[in-house]
Structure formats: structure tokens, C-alpha cells
Design brief:
alpha+beta
Length: 452
């Protein structure tokens, strides 16, 4: 037996790897093989390389670069020094602090590693499935390590579609359903056995030396065959060194993932950076438990690189009783980040998927983010023109809001989403009501407002 430190020790538990794995050593797990055991070939080495090759093949038909980011220096402190504690979405910002993507496109980037959900859909056990879901929830942060600029705030009624049914198996649609507070609804359907939906509101504030971005809302994921319904929320992102020094980003907090059908759960902890800590930076740890709070898997890794899983075969209390010692089998890699494209540092550190998100595409709705003139000008490197266009669009949006408040215009209603109450959580949120893909099929966009 030897100590196992794949990503250094967790603050909540210690893992020990062994080649000896008698099933009786896992107390209270009389159904561990049926619900939690992994097949011998689960996620074998080499699968990640095959997925990478598939990614390159499917992205071969799409663009691999965008115009390089111009070198326009501007102090963020000069813009927001009088905005301490205020909501950043209400502060007019020049495009210098943006990246040429909207928040709707940034939400869609969560699907970068959708193959994890494809694998989860094929799992025979709910606990194994939860491991993949947890890895997917962590993978959505992998592109943020160097992305210190902010996406464009979507205009009310703005949409973004991503139709990857042919190569990735899914269709995704986002709509900005509220302006104050800013809220976006998102729906994804995959013919590989799963659906995902969420409504997200961004709470962002300036605290003096850093900016915190806290997404509010619940992410729902349902697998079609089993009906397993998972929910979780996002952690807080913090941009440091706003006043002086090089900007850098950190993720911190807990993600509580719950399967509302089986009551399995997993708490992922995103450890905040500490100058005095000996832990690896950007560390993520977690434990997958069944409905009886029996631990079955330990998860470890970093949110910017990889996540591993190790099946638990025994547990005990460490000296002093402050930590649980988990005895595990050898770890298996669930997820590994794809390498960034060549020259990514001059293209906003976009991933291969992000480079394609704003690529012009025929047939999309007239409210699609790809058609935003300020965003297109920024991507082309025409930042002065982009800032002027951004100001025009925001002023027109404020005028439309004034007319609604004065009763001149009817109140805004989302086109493709409607408010419903989820019977698992009891929460009310905007959920896709249908109609978008049918409208695209016949190219009937007569119901869409003119927002650009």
C-alpha cells in the first residue's frame, strides 16, 4: 500500500492507492458493484487521444483563426475606480475590456467537452455516470484560465444558436430573456441521449483589487434512457490585479451535484489560490456518494487541465478524526483539456471551439449574436468603430426600455422560452418552449424583433 497523491492531498480527505481491493472493505456498499463499479476498460489510456483526433477532424471544416487582437492599452482602473461595489453590468465599458463573443456564446462554450455527457449517457451505473457529469461541470472552466476579458452583454431578445447535430450530436439555443437583471436561458438537446438547460444571471462586482463574477442559477441535465435528472450551480470566478500587475483569474467555491432520481450526489471543491498553500493551484477535489452517503469514488484534478477518478474500496478516520482516509484503486483519467490552437495568445486565448462560435453562418435568426455589428467590428480589429457601434446599440436598448416602462410599447416576452416550475427543485425558470428550429427550417423570422 502506498500514499496516492495525484493532485496533492485534499483538505477534507486523504486517499491511499492499493492493488488489493476486497469488496468487503467498503462498509455499507452491498450494491457497490452494481451501482458503482467500473468496467475494466473504462476510459482506457488512448481514448483521449482518439477524441482529440476526432476534434481536429470535425473542426477541419471550420475556421481555425481570427484576426489578431490589436495592442490597445487602457487602464481598467481609470474606468471603474468610481464604481466600488456596483453591479458591473450597469457600467458602460469600452470594447477594450471585451472579447469578440457574447455571453450567450460564452455559455455555449460549456459544451466544449460534450463527449463527457455522451459517455455518461452510455453508463450502466448512476454512480459511474455521476463521475462523468462531475468531470463535465469542471471542464467548463478550462478555457477561463487566461480569459481575463469579458464577453459582450447580450441585448434583450438576442439569441445564439449552435447546430452541431451532424458532428457532435447536439443543438444548442440561448436567448437573453431579461435585461435588468441580465439573464440568459439556454437549452441543449442531443440525440446521443441527454438534454441540458439553464437560466443564468450574472452577479459581478468590483471590490478594489479584484472583480468577482458569480453566476446565479441552476443547471439541469437529464438522460433520456434512465430519466436521471442532475442539477448543480456554478462557482465564483475572480479576476485579480485590477489596479496593478498582470491580470489573472481564479475559481473558488463548491459545486453540489445531485441526481434527483437516485439521490446520488457529489460535492466538487474548487480550492482558491493561496500564496501560503503547498497545494497545486487550480485544484479540484470531490467525493461521489450514494443515497446512503456511502462514498464510492474520489475525484481529483485541476479545472484547467484534467480530472481523475478512483474507486473507493475502504475508508477509515485519520489520526485526530479530522480527515477521512479513503483506500482506492488506481486512478483513471476522465477528462483532459485539449491544447489551445497555435497563436492562441494573440487570439484572446480562444479554444478551437471558441474560434468557430462567431463564424458567419447562413440561415440563423436575425437576432443571432453572429450578426451583432459591434462584435463583428471588434473581431475585425476595428475597435474605435466597434465602441461607437456598441454605444449606439446600448442607447437604442435604453430607449426601448423607456418606451416599455411608459406603456408606449408592450412588455417584452421571450420568443423561444417560457417560465416554468421544475418539479424536482421547485424553482421557477425560463425553459425552451420550442419553435426555433422549425422557424429556421422554413426561414420564417417574422416574429423576431429588430435589435441590431
Amino acid at each position: 500500500m502506498e500514499l496516492f497523491h495525484p493532485m496533492d492531498d485534499s483538505p477534507a480527505f486523504i486517499t491511499m492507492m492499493t492493488s488489493d481491493h476486497p469488496q468487503s472493505r467498503l462498509s455499507g456498499s452491498n450494491h457497490s458493484v452494481a451501482n458503482g463499479a467500473l468496467p475494466n476498460n473504462w476510459n482506457q489510456e488512448g481514448q483521449g487521444q482518439r477524441r482529440l483526433k476526432e476534434l481536429h477532424l470535425r473542426e477541419g471544416r471550420r475556421r481555425r483563426q481570427i484576426p489578431e487582437k490589436p495592442n490597445h492599452a487602457l487602464s481598467l482602473w481609470s474606468v471603474i475606480k468610481n464604481c466600488l461595489g456596483k453591479e458591473l453590468s450597469k457600467i458602460p465599458m469600452p470594447v477594450n475590456f471585451n472579447e469578440p463573443l457574447s455571453m450567450l456564446q460564452r455559455l455555449t462554450e460549456d459544451l466544449e467537452y460534450s463527449e463527457l455527457l455522451d459517455s455518461a449517457s452510455a453508463c450502466r451505473s448512476s454512480l459511474e455516470q455521476l463521475c462523468y457529469v462531475a468531470a463535465f461541470s469542471a471542464s467548463s472552466y478550462s478555457t477561463t484560465a487566461h480569459r481575463t476579458t469579458k464577453p459582450f452583454n447580450p441585448l434583450l431578445g438576442e439569441t445564439y444558436e449552435l447546430d452541431r447535430l451532424e458532428d457532435c450530436g447536439y443543438r444548442s439555443l440561448c436567448e437573453q430573456v431579461s435585461h435588468h437583471p441580465p439573464a440568459a436561458a439556454h437549452h441543449v438537446w442531443s440525440h446521443r441521449g441527454w438534454s441540458l438547460w439553464q437560466e443564468i444571471t450574472i452577479d459581478s462586482k468590483f471590490h478594489g483589487k479584484c472583480v468577482s463574477v458569480r453566476p446565479l442559477g441552476t443547471i439541469h441535465l437529464q438522460f433520456h434512457a434512465s430519466g436521471n435528472h442532475y442539477t448543480w450551480s456554478k462557482v465564483t470566478s475572480t479576476v485579480h490585479n485590477i489596479i496593478l500587475g498582470k491580470l489573472w483569474i481564479d475559481q473558488s467555491g463548491d459545486i453540489e451535484i445531485v441526481n434527483h432520481v437516485t439521490k446520488d450526489s457529489c460535492r466538487l471543491t474548487f480550492c482558491p489560490y493561496s500564496y501560503f498553500s503547498r497545494d497545486v493551484s487550480r485544484k479540484v477535489t470531490g467525493v461521489v456518494m450514494d443515497s446512503e452517503n456511502t462514498a464510492h469514488f474520489v475525484l481529483s484534478g485541476t479545472w484547467d487541465d484534467k480530472i481523475e477518478s478512483a474507486r473507493i474500496i475502504g475508508s477509515s478516520q485519520a489520526t485526530g478524526g479530522q480527515k477521512t482516509v479513503y483506500q482506492t484503486e488506481s486512478p483513471r483519467q476522465l477528462w483532459k483539456k485539449y491544447p489551445l490552437p497555435e497563436n492562441a495568445e494573440n487570439m484572446y486565448f480562444f479554444s478551437s471551439l471558441a474560434l468557430t462560435l462567431n463564424e458567419p453562418e447562413e440561415g440563423v435568426g436575425p437576432t443571432d449574436s453572429r450578426l451583432r455589428p459591434d462584435q463583428r467590428l471588434m473581431e475585425a480589429g476595428l475597435w474605435s468603430e466597434a465602441s461607437a457601434e456598441k454605444q449606439r446599440l446600448e442607447e437604442e436598448q435604453r430607449e426601448r426600455r423607456k418606451r416599455r416602462e411608459a406603456g408606449v410599447d408592450d412588455g417584452h416576452r421571450p420568443l423561444w422560452f417560457e417560465r416554468r416550475t421544475d418539479h424536482f427543485t421547485g424553482e421557477s425558470s425560463f425553459v425552451y418552449k420550442g419553435g426555433y428550429w422549425e422557424a429556421k427550417e422554413c426561414q420564417d423570422w417574422s416574429m423576431c424583433p429588430e435589435i441590431f
